[in-house]
Amino acid sequence: MTRQLHLNLFIYPDGHHEAAWRHPDSDTDRILDIGYYQELAQKAEAAKFDAVFFADGPSLAENIRYAARFRLEPITVMTAIVAATERIGVIGTASTTYTEPYNLARQFAALDHLSKGRAGWNIVTTGAANAALNFGLDAHPVHRDRYERAEEYVEVITKLWDSWEDDAVVADRASGLFADTDKIHRVDHVGKHFRVAGPLNAPRSPQGRPVYVQAGSSEDGRAFAARWAEAIFTAHQTLESAQEFYADIKSRARAGGRDPQGLKVLPGISPFISSTAREAEELHEQFNDLTQPEYSLAQLERLTGVDLSAYDLDGPFPREVIDADVERSEGSRFQLVLDIVEREQPTLRQLCHRLAGARGHRVVTGTPDQVADTIQQWAEQGAADGFNVMPPWLPGGIDVFIEEVVPILRVRGLFRTEYEGSTLRDHLGLERPASQYASRPAATLTKETA
Amino acid sequence: MTRQLHLNLFIYPDGHHEAAWRHPDSDTDRILDIGYYQELAQKAEAAKFDAVFFADGPSLAENIRYAARFRLEPITVMTAIVAATERIGVIGTASTTYTEPYNLARQFAALDHLSKGRAGWNIVTTGAANAALNFGLDAHPVHRDRYERAEEYVEVITKLWDSWEDDAVVADRASGLFADTDKIHRVDHVGKHFRVAGPLNAPRSPQGRPVYVQAGSSEDGRAFAARWAEAIFTAHQTLESAQEFYADIKSRARAGGRDPQGLKVLPGISPFISSTAREAEELHEQFNDLTQPEYSLAQLERLTGVDLSAYDLDGPFPREVIDADVERSEGSRFQLVLDIVEREQPTLRQLCHRLAGARGHRVVTGTPDQVADTIQQWAEQGAADGFNVMPPWLPGGIDVFIEEVVPILRVRGLFRTEYEGSTLRDHLGLERPASQYASRPAATLTKETA
């Protein structure tokens, strides 16, 4: 059987290109209208995508002046989407640094109940340093400390999601027994960062646990993902880089006693599609022409830690002012920028344009066949189990992908024509984990919490 | 013009009577199905109710063994409901003690956006002491400390909801100006309990601020409500008690410089309705016969602080073992229990039955006309601006109220036949507050944050 790909639609309000909101084809007027997001999810569902995906961060991006970079809170948006769809999964980002685990456990469990098993949690430690100031902290915890906390956080939340055994609710009207309290367990977690007694205050959710998604590719991020993640969203500019990551993360998972199939690698891909390669390039340039240096340079400063606004945009990128040894929130994304600089020797403006499309994720331009070729190559050459599709603008950028590229993937036997199951775990080919507290552990008990 | 009442449907999974889930007319099989909650809200919307209302608490009720007292997280449930309705408001409970204000501000603002202005926040400090153990605390903060924190919390969250002026989003494609950052304000709150820099990371919501609802009737609770609340959910067994509360809270609001019309008093009412008074009594008894002493006594212990399980259920309530001076989480509800004891001299079982219907809220039994009479009397004699309707069981308990009582209220000119506005503020007759940061303060700027 041909390898089956997984496809998520990663929804950014107006699209992923930083200047998308300025383009006449973007639906900028509707980016605060939930009907718009529901329609995007319905399109992705009609195309049998695995899930829609939402980023998040609990602070305001400093460059809101130049782009639609507000954040609609994902739990609410995802819930509105599951109410308007039947099968597609919803994956939303939430922070282990800035959310109480009991609150997060409740909301994702509720989302999994309401969606009948379609919820996924994108586990992040939060990159934006200014978030700390919204939560009473003097400074954003450093990368390593955030990951240490995240480890314990996921342990706690997993215990909470497991705290009701699957058959704890009895609801026997005659005897008056609503729940078998022998099957509802205190978790009594006491650790360095958290003390949580539990149990959760709702029955176990349809998937047992929402799907664990992760998006960091630093050393700490890889170790974390190998231990916990069931899907990884990752940024790669080249096939080689994606192959290295894919092999590394699968071998780490194997070394940790996990089945590497239980961990799906999903690079981001942002496609500019047109009927000729040249037209696709021109479309990409249309968007790049709408970028604003103030925004692009602020983005770049966030990634490199250096204010580059005094440099000539059309001069060479000033590699010498970047100190690679500085601690950075987004370590892996910083390395990706440095790799582009080494490989392509861009001017400052060219680098800004390289990052404008999808913040470091792979931008492909070409005909539908060319885009499908790239997808197939990455899938068949050990670089991806699927993709987070990041339309440059919306809704047109996903329409053209669904209408032109998805049919080619189907002809090549790479993508489903119908859903086979009903939960996000079904779509992704992941097992439903048993509760770690189950009195008679089921055969499907996953290794990571055994 | 006749006084117009406000009616909310307060949704408990299987209904408010503690034994509702055991009754054959309850839809116990559907209490984890979101479609069930959406249908209840649609019924209330068809009947032109102001809002649906959800309680919450971030811990598991200890008596889950005997009743359906799990908690589906309200933000998610409310979002699913707004996705399936057009006009009705949604009011959900969230804790100032156990939620980060920045996170709560984001979620309610998002809900207000998604619902196009139908969100209300029921502000609670959390009564259940075991919640503390889910959030790393050794003990639940005492009543007074929780209210002190709540004061500051509401100040912070109001600043966050005001942090974008109404016209901050420009979205001018030509010039590239997405948001006028002169109209987006840091809040820079520094207080005893919170340090929050802000601004919020999303535009101001349709209602400016979600409606502020409050449900505590203790001394601290009344002071808090008079300062902040726009609607108050309150428990009273007698007309006199409700009148005292109504007069007191309105006069406190007036003393604080507020228009007392901007603060709606909504007692809870749990109606058993049948075609004769006797049949309604019998219906009530049917439910009481399904109660379980283990559950009822645990409820009573929570309210009184005393384990009464060793006492004879059919002996007199042992008033002498209750120490009224002990600090209690739910001070006002405790007083209500003592008042019942003084007034009615019940046996322990009778007291359990008195509280089984709606945890201390007024239970009325009677014909549709009799129930409408009570409602009219309370409304016309200075005890209520409307009611939180608490059906003893669901869905039948709200069906009969809508089919039999609402038409009578309409004939008497007490309740609307159509919505006049589109937001929850419109339904409740509340002004839309201007942002406290608005450069040109609008005439509607409310006093409480001026």
TrEMBL record, chains A, B:
Pfam families (alphabetical): Bac_luciferase
Q: Which residues form the Luciferase-like domain?
A: 27-383
The UniProt keyword set, sorted, is: Flavoprotein, FMN, Monooxygenase, Oxidoreductase
Record's keyword annotation contains Oxidoreductase: yes
The reply to whether Oxidoreductase figures as a keyword in the UniProt entry is yes
Regarding protein family, the annotation reads: Belongs to the NtaA/SnaA/DszA monooxygenase family.
NCBIfam families listed in its UniProt record? FMN_nitrolo
Name assigned to this protein: LLM class flavin-dependent oxidoreductase
Q: Organism source for this protein?
A: Aeromicrobium duanguangcaii
